[in-house]
Amino acid sequence: MSNRRRLDADPIPGGCEDCHAEQVLHEEAPGVLVLTVMHDPTCPYLAKRSTS
Ligand SMILES: [Zn+2]
Predict the structure, then answer these.
(1) Which residues surround ligand 1, an ion (CB under 5 A)?
(2) In a structure prediction context, what are the per-residue pLDDT tens digits for the chain, which is 52 residues long?
(3) At a CB cut-off of 8 Å and minimum separation 6, what does 7 contact?
(4) Is-above-0.70 flag for pTM?
(5) Are 15 and 37 in contact (CB under 8 A)?
(6) 10 CA → ligand 1 middle, Å
(7) Could you tell me the sign of the dihedral formed by the alpha carbons of 7, 11, 12, 18, in that order?
């Protein structure tokens, strides 16, 4: 459906104070929007989460 792709292709800068993250909003189900933070690979916050 074309109305879902419109949201997928619209990243929002920000979402993490430790890196240049982007937030991607996508529609998981009709009427259910999920906001995912895409961290930079060098993000210290991300590194901390993956080691513990
Ligand atoms: Zn981050």
Answers:
(1) 16, 18-19, 21, 39, 43, 45
(2) 555 555 556 789 999 999 999 999 888 999 999 999 999 999 999 888 876 5
(3) 25, 26, 27, 33
(4) no
(5) yes
(6) 19
(7) positive
